[in-house]
Amino acid sequence: MHTLTCTTKIISKSTCKQKMSQFSVVLLIGLMMCGACSAQLSPTFYATSCPNVSSIVLGVVQQARQSDARLGAKIIRAHFHDCFVDGCDGSVLLDNDTANGIVTERTALPNLSLDVSAVADIKTALESVCPGVVSCADILALASQILVALDGGPTWQVPLGRRDSRTANLAGANANIPLASNGFTEVQRKFTVQGLDSTDLVALSGAHTFGKAQCVTFRNRLYNFSGDGNPDPTLDPTLLQSLRQSCPQNTGDSNLSDLDPTTPNGFDNNYFTNLQNNRGLLQSDQELFSTTGADTVAIVNRFAGSQTQFFDTFGDSMIKMGNISPLTGTNGEIRTTCNRIN
Ligand code: HEM
Q1: Mutate to test the pocket of ligand 1, among 208, 267, 268, 271 (most ligand atoms within 8 A of CB)
Q2: Distance CA 144, CA 54 (A)
Q3: Is 258 found in the same domain as 223?
Q4: Contacts of 325 (CB under 8 A, 6+ apart)
Q5: Residue that terminates a domain, selected from 176, 200, 227
Q6: Is 115 annotated as a binding residue?
Q7: How far apart are the first and last CA of the chain?
Q8: Which contiguous run of DSSP H or E holds residue 87?
Q9: Ligand 1 pocket, 176 CB below 6 A?
Q10: Among 10, 43, 65, 166, who pairs with 71 as Cys (CB 3.0-4.6 Å)?
């Protein structure tokens, strides 16, 4: 750390004071930027300890997605649900473990349909080459990026170096993870709490460009939206008719529909043109565009008009989300098996 004093004879006292205040401003800006940049994570974190980490993860997920086209959707969703509960620390992966006082987060309502089974295969492959090195939290962050790219989406440099939690937080999972029925203000609040703004909210919701949702998560929009027996007026009538076929009024809770009915498996910006055409599947999706006066409307329009802008922002927002309160240094541990603490 530099120290400055005004005792030198070479410059006048007033010039020196001016320089000191300039220095303070630069220092302050530096500190403020560092607060937002999560300095300890780095894309090269495993450069010496596990240099092939990316190609090992790529190999496993390439194989796995041949039999599961939804793999990318499942993994990125798990990463999101991990990060929103006490930071990106792999807590969502822990199973019940009475001996260690762990109550799994996966019985929380938004987590009931999570499928994290592929993580074990990725971990096994990594343990055989770099034992005890790569965290489960980093596996979620890195596999998300690799799978998004494989599905046609953007690439970004994933900051790495997260460590894994030794605890889970079921109450936090129920409280922090947004529900489709939360309503725009509540969804926005849940993002703000995590340090994510409206641009992040819209960009990250763009992950609903692939994957599926169960009937139970949007049925109210089809039959009785406001308690008056009518469907959601912001749902396109043609889409309404087809969704009613796959999601009947009184049965079929777990029937699946595509989150992006236009290009269901590819990662692109059609999610945003869908919203412009009242073809968002979840209430939380459509409200980004249909909420009068919301600052998200212009952002939806921008991403609908430019896939490049969506892709660039998506990468930035994924990095921001991935930086939520990581465990680093000697905090937490590197789990040997992702579903239980060491
Ligand atoms: C903005 C608030 C959000 C809400 C309310 C929300 C809600 C939901 C719901 C209800 C489902 C269907 C789950 C089911 O049927 O069981 C879903 C699926 C999904 N969500 Fe979100 N989500 C949000 C944001 C995000 C974010 C930020 C991401 C990732 C960056 C994401 C990625 C996904 C993906 C990929 C799927 C499909 C998963 C699959 O096919 O298995 N979501 N989301």
Answers
A1: 208
A2: 11
A3: yes
A4: 86, 87, 88, 89
A5: 176
A6: no
A7: 39
A8: none
A9: no
A10: 65
Q: Is 81 a catalytic residue?
A: yes
What lies within 8 Å, CB to CB, of 318 at 6+ separation is 144, 145, 156, 158, 204
What letter represents residue 221's amino acid? R
Three-state DSSP class for 42? strand
User: So what's the pLDDT on residue 40?
Assistant: 86
Determine whether the shortest distance from the Cβ of 280 to ligand 1 is under 6 A. Answer: no
Whether 140 maps to a domain, the answer reads yes
CA-closest residue to ligand 1 atom 18 = 213
Cite the beta strand spans of 122-271 per DSSP E. 212-214, 256-258
Angle at 85 between CA 97 and CA 141, to 5 degrees: 95
Binding site membership of 166 for ligand 1 (Cβ less than 6 Å): no
Model pLDDT, residue 28: 36
Whether 96 is in a domain gets the answer yes
- Please state, in angstroms and as integers, the Cα–Cα distance from residue 34 to each residue in 27, 80, 310, 323, 332, following that order: 10, 23, 25, 12, 22
Whether 88 shows a pLDDT value over 50: the answer reads yes
Torsion of CA 44, 48, 52, 54, to 10 degrees: -20
Count of domains in the chain?
Answer: 2
Tell me, yes or no, whether 233 and 152 share the same domain: no
Residue with tokens 């936090």: 172
Nearest residue to 75 via CA among 98, 58, 87, 100: 58
Of 156, 116, 170, nearest in space to 139 by CA: 116
297: enclosing H helix or E strand: helix 296-305
Any binding-site annotation on 260?
yes
pLDDT over 90, % of the chain: 88
CB 40 within 8 A of CB 329: yes
Q: What pLDDT was estimated at residue 29?
A: 38
Token pair of 55 as six digits: 């190609």
